[in-house]
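Team,

Forwarding the record for the chain on the shared tracking sheet. I've put the sequence and predicted structure together so nobody has to dig through attachments.
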Amino acid sequence: MNGRVYDAIAAIGERRFVGGIRAQLLPGLKGGIVEIGAGTGASFPYYDPSAHVLALEPDRSMLARAKERAKSAACVD
């Protein structure tokens, strides 16, 4: 799927529901984390800066967007 289209479709759910869940679950994670199927990297901003996240995404379009998000996330390789 095209990453830009995915983000557009997921935006409402992210604002209304999923973002809140991410905000509750991810900030407390520390140490090494492997995120399989990272999508467009929507979860990256929620991780604690001290976490070390290795993110994997097989779809090229999604990966391109995830790489852009990773640039501003201190926890992602």
